[in-house]
Automatic annotation (TrEMBL):
Protein name per the record: RING-type domain-containing protein
Biased composition (Pro residues): 402-411
Biased composition, class Acidic residues, residue ranges: 376-391
InterPro entries noted in UniProt: E3_UB_ligase_RBR, TRIAD_supradom, Znf_RING, Znf_RING/FYVE/PHD, Znf_RING_CS
Length: 496
């Protein structure tokens, strides 16, 4: 302690405290650790400790001894608080002290233990920390939504970036909004615990802690007396979620049932004894006097006194939701859970999560491959069924088949051409006029001719009777389009 008094006297401090306006200079004295006469350095930095209490320490140590002491504490002990080596001194080294005196690996291990300790203390509702941070853990749903609305209105009406912490000095205990474990994303309210150059330790209102938050993501919150609100949004993603929550609340309000509309056996969505979630169930009984209903939930639970205010229409809860991209209300009538909105957004009905174009292309490709494979299997099965039916047809069933209607005999095609005599004899016996030959594939079919100019064969019904080979051997004279084009099917028959 004599060293402390000497250094205080050398600095002109009669009360033993450190004067930031007059930083002490290095002196030559005995080190309290190695007890050797060395050049001693004042190690305290003008920074508050973890409890926002400024307890200056004026003890001096040689840098090597103090660095070994801090390194041993960081690597070998489970406690993160490192006190001054002097037993009577209550000062605890700050983050800047530890970072300056030890290696990067030791500082990382020490920071992890410190952050974990802060988180555990918040989770255990440490009264001392809550009192110092001015944080209230019980936040009602109404106050949270009201503060969210007020914050968004302030953000719209003011230039929050210019009014942020860039133009203000960072201080311990300053109320800010910051992202969590990322430079982008949703913003949450919290309090600055410690400042370390370009990094800050943030204690969020809901109990989380981030010890290495960049200063660039912080935004200043004006003190309006409403500092006990958790997780107030300020970015686009949270506004999207807030808009979807607002639409869901509108649907829930519009789908509320009156006690007169509730009947036994009605399928509804009802809340549980705690929480804001709704679950599907069936009304078992109705108490109109107390305005309660008895609900049998689909998952097996049972509540005999569910307030009518927590009962919703099942159809509006299950068939009506909001598009995650344009927030339009969509009603699902039937089909699978794959939905497509009018804005072009593909999403799943249950989770309301958009589906990217890459995933859609993979699904379509997979469905096409499975569809081709499935179609080939079905064709093979159908062919097998037809063969089985013909194979097992009995003689009695064959007799029941009606006879084929009478018609002209088949046109016999020989090497020299068709045999028209049989066809003419058939039509003469029927006293009917034969139709034109069914050669619709030809560009120039049979056309009516004058019988007086016919020199090859008699005509029947105003059509010249010719075989197909005669037509091939006798090409027409005229335009290019009047020349006969022989189909490939006929060419294969005649061996052309």
């Amino acid at each position: 302690m004599g060293n402390c008094q000497n250094s205080s006297a050398n600095n002109g401090n009669t009360n033993g405290l450190y004067d930031e306006s007059r930083p002490p200079a290095d002196v030559t004295d005995y080190c309290p650790i190695c007890l050797e006469k060395r050049t001693l350095t004042f190690q305290y930095t003008p920074e508050s400790n973890e409890h926002f209490i400024s307890t200056p320490c004026t003890h001096r140590f040689c840098p090597k001894c103090l660095a070994q002491y801090v390194g041993f504490k960081c690597s070998s002990t489970a406690e993160w608080e490192i006190k001054c080596p002097i037993p009577e001194c209550a000062y605890k080294l700050s983050n800047l002290d530890v970072r300056r005196l030890t290696s990067q690996e030791n500082h990382r291990m020490w920071s992890e233990r410190r952050n974990g300790s802060h988180l555990n203390r918040f989770l255990q509702n440490d009264p001392t920390m809550l009192r110092l941070m001015n944080v209230k853990t019980e936040i009602t749903w109404f106050r949270e939504r009201e503060a969210e609305r007020v914050f968004e209105e302030k953000e719209r009406n003011s230039k929050s970036l210019k009014e942020g912490l860039y133009n203000k000095s960072f201080q311990h205990g300053t109320r800010v909004t910051a992202t969590y474990l990322s430079n982008v994303g949703r913003r949450y309210q919290g309090t600055i615990v410690e400042i370390n150059n370009n990094l800050a330790s943030i204690a969020y209102d809901d109990g989380d802690f981030w010890g290495t938050c960049p200063i660039s993501v912080l935004r200043y919150i004006e003190d309006d007396g409403d500092d006990d609100v958790a997780r107030v949004s300020g970015d686009r993603e949270n506004r999207r979620l807030a808009e979807m929550a607002r639409r869901r609340r509108e649907i829930q309000i519009n789908s509320r049932l009156k006690i007169e509309d509730v009947t036994i056996g009605l399928r509804v969505h009802a809340g549980w004894k705690s929480g804001n979630e709704f679950y599907a169930g069936t009304v078992r009984s109705v108490d109109k006097k107390n305005k309660t209903v008895e609900i049998n939930y689909n998952d097996g639970d049972y509540w005999n006194a569910c307030p009518i205010a927590r009962v919703r229409d099942l159809s509006s809860q299950t068939e009506t939701k909001c598009c995650p991209q344009c927030y339009v209300i969509i009603q699902k009538a039937e089909g699978c859970d794959s939905m497509m909105c009018v804005c072009g957004c593909y999403f799943g009905w249950n989770g309301l999560q958009p589906v990217s174009d890459e995933v859609l292309r993979e699904l379509v490709k997979k469905e096409d491959e499975e569809g081709i494979k499935y179609g080939e299997e079905e064709e093979e099965e159908e062919g097998d069924d037809d063969d089985d039916d013909n194979e097992f047809m009995s003689a009695a069933e064959m007799e029941k088949i009606p006879p084929a209607p009478a018609g002209p005999p088949p046109l016999l095609i020989t090497q020299n051409g068709s045999d028209p005599d049989e066809l003419l004899e058939f039509y003469d016996s029927q006293n009917s006029t034969p139709p034109p030959p069914p050669y619709s594939q030809l560009k120039t079919p049979f056309s009516p001719i004058n019988s007086s100019k016919s020199t090859k064969s008699p005509n029947v019904g105003g059509y010249e009777r010719k075989s197909i080979l005669d037509m091939i051997d006798e090409p027409r004279v005229g335009d290019k389009e009047n020349i006969l084009e022989i189909p490939q099917s006929l060419r294969s028959i005649f061996g052309m």
